[in-house]
Amino acid sequence: MAFRVLINGQPHALDCEPDMPLLWALRDLLGLTGTKYGCGIGQCGACTVHIDGAAVRSCSIPVNEATGAITTIEGVTGPVAERVLAAWDAHQVAQCGYCQPGQVMAAIALITAGPVDEEALEATMSGNLCRCATYMRIRAAVREAAQ
Ligand code: FES
């Protein structure tokens, strides 16, 4: 069965089962491997993408429910994304790097929705896990990008 999706501004027809997680469609059908698999049950945030600008966990959204404009780490653009990526570089956030696309996508959605105070920062970013425990650098980068 074919499902029409809009990803990074490009229309695609996905030939797959309706309950295929969006994460697998992105990675296995479209080769967009910047979005990572961590837990597969919506708990770690590694698979975070945007749908209509909101951060969502692509492992937990079936393709047939992915009806909005989807943006992956490969497709983020604009001033907020530029500020976030620059802050990530400035604070040398990444260690192993695996969770970072999800962290960046969560941060962009948070700052775009703004304003960002410590409570909002913690509430959002605490949902994205990092095995290397780069949390202090992540939060410093988000604070800087949010200014
Ligand atoms: Fe989706 Fe962990 S892989 S939340």
UniProtKB/TrEMBL annotation:
Domain 2Fe-2S ferredoxin-type: 1-76
Record-linked PROSITE patterns: 2FE2S_FER_1, 2FE2S_FER_2
Keywords per UniProt: 2Fe-2S, Iron, Iron-sulfur, Metal-binding, Oxidoreductase
Origin superkingdom: Bacteria
Keyword Oxidoreductase: yes
Pfam families referenced in this protein's UniProt entry, alphabetically: Fer2 (PF00111), Fer2_2 (PF01799)
Keyword 4Fe-4S (UniProt): no
Entry GO MF terms: 2 iron, 2 sulfur cluster binding; metal ion binding; oxidoreductase activity
Xref: Gene3D superfamilies: 3.10.20.30, [2Fe-2S]-binding domain
Protein name: 2Fe-2S ferredoxin-type domain-containing protein
Organism: Novosphingobium guangzhouense
